[in-house]
TrEMBL record, chains A, B:
Protein's UniProt name: Crp/Fnr family transcriptional regulator
Pfam families xrefs: cNMP_binding (PF00027), HTH_Crp_2 (PF13545)
A GO MF label: DNA-binding transcription factor activity
Lineage, uppermost ranks: Bacteria, Pseudomonadati, Pseudomonadota, Gammaproteobacteria, Oceanospirillales
Domain HTH crp-type per the UniProt entry, residue ranges: 146-212
Classification via PROSITE patterns: CNMP_BINDING_3 (PS50042), HTH_CRP_2 (PS51063)
Organism of provenance: Halomonas lysinitropha
Length: 221, 221
DNA sequence: ACGCTTCCGTGCGTTAGCGTACAAAGTGCC
DNA sequence: GGCACTTTGTACGCTAACGCACGGAAGCGT
C-alpha cells in the first residue's frame, strides 16, 4: 500500500492538472526527513526543491553569532527552496526539519524548466511565494509586539495546522531555538499553558488538549 | 529638461532591454509622492504598481490594534505592489511614502500582461522579489535580537542607501512608528548618535555626518 | 542497579524597552 | 510680540525577557 506516501498529499502537487503532474512525476524522488535535518544551509548552493507531505520544515534566519529566528513554517501546503526558481541559487536562510516525515524532491534544473514553461505550476508557485511573504510579515510584527506566551501559542498552532495528529515531538530547547528566545522562557510559558489545561508535555512530546483554548490566547497573527 | 525625471532612474526599468522598455513606456505614469502618502492600504485592492525613482517607500505590516512594524524599504532599486503579479490582489501590508519624491506607476493589468509574457521583466521582478524576501528575513531577525540603537542605525543606513543626499526629512515620531517602538526610545537612541557625532538632527531633519561610524555600530543585517 | 545524558523546573539579579506624564525648545501664524 | 502647535528631552516606576547557575527527574545503556 503505497498510497500512504502519495506525493499528491502535498497541496501544490495536488493542485496540478493530471497531465502536468504526470509530467513531473518521474522526477519526484521520495526522501524521509528526520528531525533536525538541514535541507538548506544558509549561503550554500541548493540542488533540490522539496515538497513536504507529512513533514514540517522551519525556515530560519541565522546570524553570524549563531542567533537565529524562525521566519516561516512550511508543511504540505508549500515547498522549500523557493529561491531556486525565483532566481539566485542561495538563500540567507536555513531550512530545518521540525517534524520528521516524508517529502518529495526534484532537481533544481527540473523545477526551473517547469517553472519557466509558464504552465499552471508557475502560477501555483508564485501564489505560494506570496503567501510565504505574508507569513513572514506576520512573524516579524508578532516578534515585535507580542508576548512570548502568545508567540508560543501561535507557533503551536502553526505546527498543529500542518500535522495529522495533535502531538508534537519537540523539546523546549528546540522550540526556543526556533523562536529565537531563551529555553527558560519557553519552560515558563509552556508551564502556564499546561496549568491552564491547554497542552500537556513530557520530555519532548507535546500534546495539544484544547485547540480552541490556544486560539483564544493567540494574537490575530 | 525632463531628464531629471527619467523613469529609468529606477533600476528595474533601467535593466530592461531598450525594446522592452519602449514597450512599457507609454503606460508609465509619473506621480509625485509626498511624505505619508499611502500607496497600498492593507487589504484593499491595488490598481497600480509603483517604480520609485527618487522616492522611498516603506512596507509596513499593520495589526488590528494599530501597532505596526516596517518589514521592508523600497527605493529606486525596486517596485511596490509585488502581489499584483504574484497573484492575489491584496496584501496584508501597507505601503507608506517615507521620503517624498517621484515614482512611475503602471496599471495592474499592464504589468500582469508583461509579466506573464515571460520576457526579461519577469526575471527581473522575480529576482527582486527574492531580494525583498531576504530583506524581510533580516528585518525579522534584527527585530528579535538587536538593540534599538542598532536597529536605528540599520534604518538610517537603509534609507541613506536610497537617497541622493545625506539628509532625511523624518521626525522621531515617524521613525518610531516605522520601527514599531516608542517615540522616546528613538529620542534616546538618536541622542546617543548625535552625541557621538554621527548624525545631527533638528526638528524632523536628520543629517548623517559619519556614515562609516554608523556602519561600525550597526549589526550585520 | 548503576551511572550518564537529556530534558525540564526554579530562582536569582540585571537590563532594555514600555507607559505615562510633563517640561522645554523651536516654528508658524496672526 | 503673542499664541498655538509640533517636536524633542527627561524622569520614574514597571514588566518581560535575559544570562546564569543549579537541582531534580526521566529515560537509556550496560
Amino acid at each position: 500500500m503505497t498510497l500512504q506516501h502519495d506525493p499528491r498529499q502535498n497541496h501544490l502537487l495536488a493542485a496540478l492538472p493530471r497531465d502536468e503532474y504526470e509530467n513531473l512525476a518521474p522526477h519526484l524522488e521520495r526522501v524521509d526527513l528526520t528531525l533536525g535535518d538541514s535541507l538548506v544551509e544558509s549561503g550554500k548552493v541548493m540542488r533540490h526543491v522539496y515538497f513536504p507531505t507529512d513533514s514540517i520544515v522551519s525556515l530560519l534566519c541565522v546570524m553570524e553569532d549563531g542567533d537565529s529566528t524562525e521566519i516561516a513554517v512550511v508543511g504540505a501546503e508549500g515547498i522549500v527552496g523557493i529561491s531556486l526558481f525565483m532566481g539566485g541559487e542561495t538563500t540567507p536562510s536555513r531550512a530545518i526539519v521540525q517534524s520528521a516525515g516524508t517529502a518529495y524532491r526534484v532537481k533544481g534544473q527540473v523545477i526551473k524548466d517547469e517553472f519557466y514553461r509558464a504552465g499552471p505550476l508557475q502560477g501555483l508557485l508564485l501564489r505560494y511565494t506570496q503567501a510565504l511573504l505574508t507569513q513572514m510579515a506576520q512573524t516579524a510584527v508578532c516578534n515585535r509586539h507580542h508576548s512570548l506566551d502568545q508567540q508560543l501559542c501561535r507557533w503551536l498552532l502553526l505546527s498543529l495546522d500542518r500535522l495529522p495528529t495533535n502531538e508534537l515531538i519537540m523539546t523546549q530547547e528546540l522550540i526556543a531555538n526556533m523562536l529565537g528566545v531563551r529555553r527558560e522562557g519557553v519552560t515558563e510559558s509552556a508551564g502556564k499553558l499546561q496549568k491552564a489545561g491547554l497542552i500537556s508535555y513530557h520530555r519532548g512530546r507535546i500534546t495539544v488538549l484544547d485547540r480552541l483554548g490556544l486560539e483564544a490566547r493567540v494574537c490575530e497573527c
